[in-house]
Amino acid sequence: MQTLHVDVAVIGGGTAGLGAYRAAKAHTNSVVMIEGGPYGTTCARVGCMPSKLLIAAAESVHQIEKAPAFGVHPQGDVVINGREVMSRVKRERDRFVGFVLEGVEEIPAEDKVTGYARFLNDHTLQVDDHTIIHAERIVIATGSRPAYPAVWNELGDRLIVNDDVFEWDNLPQAVAVFGPGVIGLELGQALHRLGVEVKLFGLGGQVGPLTDPEVMACADKTFREEFYLDADVKVESMQRIDGNKVEIKFINHNDELETFTVDYVLAATGRRPNTDKLALDATRVDVDKRGVPTADHFTLQTSVESIFIAGDASNQIPLLHEAADQGRIAGDNAGRFPDIRAGLRRSSISAVFSDPQIAMVGESYQQLVQRLGNCGCFATGEVSFEGQGRSRVMLRNKGMLHVYGEQGTGRFLGAEMIGPSAEHLAHLLAWAHQNKMTISEMLDMPFYHPVIEEGVRTALRDLNARLHLGPEMIKHCLDCGPGC
């Protein structure tokens, strides 16, 4: 067993871990990064990038299917070659992973330790059965993994998670997706559009990450119009049959018992931080009820001043840009210790690349209710995209946007939406939120015509009126042009 003495040890080689390593190296050369699995980020390998490749293929099919509504009639049947679809997904996925690995290869070999780490005490780690590391500071950046009920393991290889989808050589005939969250909506809709028979099931009625009841109801209605979705299903039984099939019996929308036989059950029921095998009980780190270390939001420092945590392992916001930010903050503080500094935590922004897209910015409706209660301290402005001009031109006129503002100050607090180009609308709103703009200041910004962004202006005008800071909404206002 070899022994190492270092200033900083980073556990994990994903987005947060790589960011932490590089930030710490700016302050000291005595840094090691420990990784037991494959190097590369969850996003590149099994997350955001391969899923977007599958979604892009699905969108191409959908555009062909929509063409007759414009008076354009493609000739002949549309043929979806599942092997070609998955070949491109994997080929481009490997390209993205390659970029990450190029960065990893630039890290000196002596700075990389292969294996799984566990704590022996606040300053000591054991990596597998070959290395003891004494570190002055430690950054936990171990990421997360899919979570699902243990009983589902009885389905054997017919139970899959999103990681497995991107290893398919061909598309299956039928898939049951459990969990209409970000992953479930994106993959479920994409597979449906690529000709796979899909039913999407959930519990409790939750659709996507939305918390605004009206926006969520709109999302539920919109997706149910395209494919089978029951966000609060009652499953009577689920069992493996005929070797390679799974039979699911459930109560359908008509309150009838229905049987759905599938090739795979895709578990998209959430992710679990990879902190349970770190032997944290050997440290003085305070953990929450899930066993995840609690940390300061701005410094990422845990209750033990020499231990920091970043990325999906922190159980905060499991998104790549958040993991990168957290990694830099944690690594910087671990490197400059004891000169701890608060890092920049940007305004929250998240997106679901479904169609229509879902996006959230700033404080969610639920967070505002929890913080402000029912005192009338904030108001909601809204717009429907059903009649919005540019959206109707493109036959993408589905969804709605809710924007929230503070009474008295008129400050923009956040937004939830489902609609066309929500990923882009969310960026505009996130920039406004981070700059602490008021609704009036946002309305002073330029809006071109005709663009989907005009829908944002409509919602902001509605909100300004509800805050009693501007005039009532004018139907068919002249400066908006037709259809706004």
Topology of this protein?
Layout: E1 2-11, H1 15-25, E2 31-35, H2 42-46, H3 48-66, H4 82-105, E3 112-114, E4 117-121, E5 124-127, E6 131-140, E7 144-146, E8 159-160, H5 162-165, E9 174-178, H6 182-193, E10 197-201, H7 213-224, E11 228-230, E12 234-241, E13 245-251, E14 257-262, E15 264-267, E16 271-273, E17 307-309, H8 320-336, E18 349-352, E19 357-362, H9 365-372, E20 378-384, H10 389-393, E21 400-406, E22 412-419, H11 422-434, H12 439-443, H13 454-466
Parallel strand pairs: 1-2, 1-6, 2-3, 6-17, 8-15, 9-10, 9-15, 10-11
Antiparallel strand pairs: 4-5, 5-6, 7-16, 12-13, 13-14, 18-19, 19-22, 20-21, 21-22
Family: Belongs to the class-I pyridine nucleotide-disulfide oxidoreductase family.
InterPro entries: FAD/NAD-bd_sf (IPR036188), FAD/NAD-binding_dom (IPR023753), FAD/NAD-linked_Rdtase_dimer_sf (IPR016156), Pyr_nuc-diS_OxRdtase (IPR001100), Pyr_nucl-diS_OxRdtase_dimer (IPR004099)
Active site: 449 (proton acceptor)
